Amino acid sequence: MENGLARKFLYVVAVLIMLAVAAMFAYRLYGIQLMRQFMVPSADVVALPPADAQAYTHADMWIARPDKADNPALWTPTGFAPAAKPKAALFFIHPTSFLDTHRWNAPLDNVDANNRAALFLRGQASAFNGAASVWAPRYRQATFGAFLTSKRQAQQALDFAYRDVLAAFDQFVKEAGNRPIILAGHSQGALHLSRLLVDRIAGTPLAKRVVAAYVVGWPVSVTADLPKMGLPACAAPEQTRCILSWQSFAEPADPALIIDTFDATTGFTGKSRAKTPMVCTNPITGKPGDSAPAEANLGTLVPDTNFQAARMEIGRVPARCEGRGFLMIGSTPPDFGQYVLPGNNYHVFDYSLFWANVRKDVERRLAAFR
Q1: Are 135 and 94 in contact (CB under 8 A)?
Q2: Using CA atoms, how far apart are residues 281 and 308, in angstroms rounded to an integer?
Q3: Order of strands, edge to edge, in the sheet holding 319-322?
Q4: 3-class secondary-structure state, position 278
């Protein structure tokens, strides 16, 4: 009797393992198609009114700003600390943290989205707190599914989100005073930052105050985008008033989702982005199109399973710009579990993989700027 039950139990366990493996295999093969099917909202976009003219004068419209209590951007791993008197001001646009499939734009009071955004600031914007005071606005971001479709609703949702970002940036400029400015974003935040560079930096006096712009986790075409963005791509680690950008993939890499979407669009110059090279800055060296061994990586931020803490691993991840401009990080990066996207895309960890090098990079450029 007991042996029979034991055999049945082991059989059930074996079936569950087989199902889990099959699900993982299906995700690896069909992850993009599955995400498109289940993550793209089917509803129409709800038109959002513009942000009130005084909205971003209020502290509760910011996830991080210098006078805000419990500022997530002030977090640092052991061995690091925020600057006591930062010399620069950072405007940071957080990546997509809204995963709802029923609406296209996040309400400003969505608890889940705001909590995820705060986690992103801990792992990303924190790299800059040794050089700058951090401002990071809440905004009515487009949902994750907006990046998986060519529906017109997706662009409408992104336009509504960008309008909030512009309003927040205009207030940031007023509050930053005459300090040097650092601009940074990731993913959706980097998309909005690239547009902001065109609309608020290119050809304006503000361009002279920009130490650097970190357009990370979003492709920037060298020929179809960069000429209109007001700043050149960084050509050296001490260069200022320039743009850095990278997109991280483990090997073997399959960036087909990015390439297919990117090549179907038109750049800021009005020219097609198809087959154009992308800006690829090596975050370890601060140089374009460069290669660096793992030993040169000053520290990768590896979060625990619930993302509430993290440890620093030194000399763990290499970096090499390859092909049209993707950053290869080798075949054995740290295990980040389910958050690695199809195609060996380490998109979520573009900053974390090189956290200590990004910190050194911005401090070096600020010193050169001053």
Answers
A1: no
A2: 29
A3: 248-249, 326-328, 319-322, 291-292
A4: strand
Q: How many CB atoms lie within 10 A of CB 3?
A: 7
Judge whether 96 and 68 are in contact, CB under 8 Å: no
Tokens of 358: 């990004």
Report which of 132, 128, 158, 163 is spatially closest to residue 143, judged by C-alpha positions.
Answer: 158
Read off the pLDDT of residues 304-313 as tens digits, 9 standing for 90 and up. Answer: 766 667 889 9
For 116, 166, 307, the CA distances from 121, given in Å and listed in that order, are 9, 19, 12
Terminal C-alpha separation, the chain: 80
Contacts by 114-120 with C-beta closer than 8 Å and gap 24+?
114/63, 114/138, 117/63, 118/63, 118/72, 119/72, 119/307, 120/94, 120/95, 120/186
Report yes or no on whether pTM surpasses 0.85: yes
Q: Tell me how far apart the alpha carbons of residues 258 and 19 are, in angstroms, rounded to a whole number.
A: 29
Torsion angles phi and psi, residue 310, rounded to 5? -155, 155
Q: Are 316 and 300 in contact (CB under 8 A)?
A: yes
**Chain segment 54-103, per-residue pLDDT in tens:** 999 999 999 999 999 889 999 999 999 999 999 999 999 999 998 888 89
Tell me the sheet residues that pair with 284.
none
